Amino acid sequence: MPVQEMAVSPVKSLYWEQFPPMSQRRVYCTPVYHEGLIYVLGGCSETGTPLDSVEVLDVESQTWSQLAPLPTARAGASAVVLGGQVMVLGGMNQQQTPLASVEMYHPDEGKWETRTSLGQPSMGVTTVEKDGKVYALGGMGADTTPQALVRVYEAEKDQWQPTTSMPTPRYGATPFVTGNKIYMLGGRQGKMPVTALEAFDLEMKSWTRYPCIPSRRAFSCCAANERSLFSLGGLQQPGPHNFYSRPHFVNTMEEYDLDQGVWIKPSRTSRMREKRADFVAGCLGGRVIAAGGLGNEPSPLGTVESYNPVKRRWEYVAPMPTARCSSALLQMTSMLFVIGGVAQGPSNAVEALCLQETV
């Protein structure tokens, strides 16, 4: 489909909606959406301690409820919905060590149940639910080494089975599912950002390597639409080809064309309007959105910008009501929820960038 046919909503059709705040301020929490409800699991409190608290937001009535606490307090966990139940796995415990435990919430019964653990403790696991199976990819182990493990959960047997490992060990990677492939973009190995782009074929159970992200940036963000993957912003480290003597924020955008299998040569207008890192990114109304984060300002950014893939340029959108970095993002079809994060300290703000329905 030619780019011209791609529907891009006007900037004015994007607006922020403020939801009531969470009862608990949290950063590195894990949100998951199911049937009109947003579950917010764990995270770190103001004191930096992992939380066992779980809150659920009814999106339509804009009301919060407290749920039964997690059996294991955790921050930086991963979560998916499987068969109408909420599964949470891995993350960091109160002793600051990775967890192997897996817990499942039954909304009908209102209680948590412990399931078979991952086998190896892991933080920053990338999880994908596909066709009734959960894929847990990579993570950071107890000795802080990045993992290449890929495990598949089968609910009927309550078992994790190993499958083909990733070519590049990493944690905190962003997954994108297209057809029968899981693309893995970015992530980290300790302090080193990963540039590898790899895809797992769910039928062949094999990995394919694709061209790497052209530039290495820490705290960058990834997003995807139907035809491209995007690597945005971040903090660039000084290097041999780089005249900066210390890390600096960048407004880089690198776009990978899925059909052509290449990173598109950037143009002058493809750079973001602002240099930012540790922000949130998603897609809404045919646009790539970048919101908040840290930049060359003393406090977190509230600015929001959107990339129009037809005009191939960035345009400002209404700013976030609460300027924040390190937030959790929940992508829905016509809403992008930005949950918690850091404003002055950990935040309890819940705000959504919404797409005005055009009649």
Automatic annotation (TrEMBL):
Keywords: Cell cycle, Cell division, Cytoplasm, Kelch repeat, Repeat. It is found in: Cytoplasm; Midbody. The keyword Zinc does not apply. One of its GO terms (biological process) is nuclear chromosome segregation. One of its GO terms (cellular component) is cellularization cleavage furrow. SMART domains: Kelch (SM00612). SUPFAM superfamilies: Kelch motif. It comes from the Eukaryota. Pfam families: Kelch_1, Kelch_KLHDC2_KLHL20_DRC7. Involved in pinching off the separated nuclei at the cleavage furrow and in cytokinesis. Required for mitotic integrity and maintenance of chromosomal stability. Protects cells against mitotic errors, centrosomal amplification, micronucleus formation and aneuploidy. Plays a key role of midbody function involving abscission of the daughter cells during cytokinesis and appropriate chromosomal and nuclear segregation into the daughter cells. This is Kelch domain-containing protein 8B. It comes from Seriola dumerili. The lineage of its organism: Eukaryota, Metazoa, Chordata, Craniata, Vertebrata.
